[in-house]
């Protein structure tokens, strides 16, 4: 593609749920391959890509806690789940000849590198895709918060949150056919209208650091590339 990128460095948040695809549980390699293809298009036009991957397809601390488990232990399991997803994502990227590394907020010597912000910056400048795993490394946080945190840390120009719907709506569009999509939203509108885009920790982080976030549909092929060249997909959240 000869299209010029509008953003030099982005942070892409992929939910674990999206990785299930047509499988009943776990990871569908076909989904990963398609994502790798789309990410490769960004790398191809010179965009630096950081990824934060979720773990909800495998474990969520809150759900394990509801079933009776200690919350912190459940969150540890959830964070480890994101590392598994990250390994699968790296595998898909490397099979597509996209240079990539996984970093983990929880040290896991011999499997992935420990998160190091300066090293991550250097890799990104080099054109490598970096997958940030294990969330923030702390219980009671989500990978949405981790995405906003890492996005701010690596000085990304934009945080991209991939979802199943193409943006933020006035109500759940699946249940309410009259729901209207927002083209743009401010951080404060999300807070006052109590829109469930991301958890409050994540919203407050991006608001305090004026980090723009775009919510879009990852199942729509070409959407990711379109956003990066300045297209109007989904919903843009900014000040
Ligand atoms: N998690 C955590 N701290 C973090 C990020 C994640 O404890 O900083 C745990 C938490 O239990 C969460 C699970 O990891 O439920 C998986 O992450 P998340 O639910 O955000 O994944 P997604 O919904 O994006 O698939």
From TrEMBL:
GO MF annotations, alphabetized: ATP binding; UMP kinase activity
Translocase keyword on record: no
Keyword Nucleotide-binding assigned: yes
Class of enzymatic activity (EC top level): transferase
A GO CC annotation given for this chain: cytosol
Domain Aspartate/glutamate/uridylate kinase: 8-217
Subcellular location(s) of the protein: Cytoplasm
Pfam family name, one: AA_kinase
Pathway participation: Pyrimidine metabolism; CTP biosynthesis via de novo pathway; UDP from UMP (UMPK route): step 1/1
Record's catalysed reaction(s): UMP + ATP = UDP + ADP
UniProt activity-regulation remark: Inhibited by UTP.
Residues reported to bind UMP: 55, 75, 136-143
Listed GO biological process terms: 'de novo' CTP biosynthetic process; UDP biosynthetic process
Binding site for ATP: 13-16, 56, 60, 163, 169, 172
Entry-linked PANTHER family: URIDYLATE KINASE, URIDYLATE KINASE PUMPKIN, CHLOROPLASTIC
Function: Catalyzes the reversible phosphorylation of UMP to UDP.
Listed NCBIfam families: pyrH_bact (TIGR02075)
SUBUNIT field: Homohexamer.
Family to which this protein belongs: Belongs to the UMP kinase family.
Protein's recorded name: Uridylate kinase
């Amino acid at each position: 593609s000869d299209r010029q990128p509008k953003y030099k460095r982005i942070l892409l948040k992929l939910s674990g749920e999206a990785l299930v695809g047509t499988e009943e549980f776990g990871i569908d390699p076909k989904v990963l391959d398609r994502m790798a293809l789309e990410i490769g298009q960004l790398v191809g036009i010179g965009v630096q890509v950081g990824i934060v991957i979720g773990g909800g397809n495998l474990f969520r601390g809150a759900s394990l806690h509801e079933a009776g488990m200690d919350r912190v232990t459940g969150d540890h399991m959830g964070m480890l789940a994101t590392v598994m997803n990250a390994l699968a994502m790296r595998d898909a990227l490397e099979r597509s000849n996209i240079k990539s590394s996984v970093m983990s907020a929880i040290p896991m010597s011999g499997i992935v590198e420990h998160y190091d912000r300066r090293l991550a910056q250097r890799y990104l400048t080099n054109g490598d895709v970096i997958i940030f795993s294990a969330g923030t490394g702390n219980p009671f946080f989500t990978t949405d918060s981790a995405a906003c945190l890492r996005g701010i840390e690596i000085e990304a120009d934009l945080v991209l949150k991939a979802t199943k719907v193409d943006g933020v709506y006035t109500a759940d569009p699946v249940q309410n056919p009259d729901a209207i999509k927002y083209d743009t939203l401010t951080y404060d509108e999300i807070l006052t209208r109590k829109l469930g885009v991301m958890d409050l920790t994540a919203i407050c982080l991006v608001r305090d650091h004026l980090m723009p976030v775009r919510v879009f549909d990852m199942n729509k092929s070409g959407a990711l590339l379109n956003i990066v060249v300045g297209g109007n997909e989904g919903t843009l959240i900014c000040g």
